[in-house]
C-alpha cells in the first residue's frame, strides 16, 4: 500500500493515472481533491498477474482513531447521504499519453 499526497489545480481538481506506453493505453481518474483528500495505491504482482488499485478516499488506512485524534474524521448522520463523483477516462495513443504527461507536469509546476 502506498499513500500519496496529490497536487490539485486552482479549482481543487486532481487526478491519477496508469499508463502502458507499450500498449499505447492508459486510464485516468479525475476527482475533486477536497472530497477525496486521501489517495492510496496498491498492487499485486503475483504469479504472472499484475493488478493495481487507485483509491481516492475521504479517509486513510490509518483508521478511525487516527482521524479522531487529528479532528478530521469524516462522518455522516444516520439516514443521510452524500453524492460524490469521479470521472474515469481511457486514453489511447502516444499523443493522448503525452498530453497526460504534460498535464501532470503543469500541475506539479
From TrEMBL:
Pfam families: DUF4432. GO terms for molecular function: carbohydrate binding. It comes from the Bacteria. This is DUF4432 family protein. It comes from Bifidobacterium longum subsp. longum.
Amino acid at each position: 500500500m502506498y499513500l500519496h499526497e496529490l497536487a490539485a489545480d486552482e479549482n481543487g481538481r486532481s487526478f491519477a493515472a496508469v499508463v502502458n506506453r507499450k500498449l499505447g493505453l492508459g486510464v485516468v481518474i479525475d476527482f475533486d481533491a477536497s472530497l477525496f483528500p486521501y489517495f492510496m495505491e496498491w498492487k499485486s504482482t503475483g504469479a504472472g498477474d499484475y493488478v493495481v488499485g487507485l483509491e481516492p478516499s475521504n479517509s486513510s488506512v490509518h483508521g478511525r482513531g487516527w482521524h479522531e485524534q487529528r479532528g478530521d474524521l469524516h462522518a455522516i448522520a444516520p439516514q443521510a447521504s452524500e453524492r460524490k463523483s469521479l470521472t474515469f477516462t481511457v486514453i489511447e495513443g502516444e499523443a493522448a499519453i503525452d498530453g497526460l504527461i504534460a498535464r501532470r507536469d503543469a500541475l506539479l509546476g
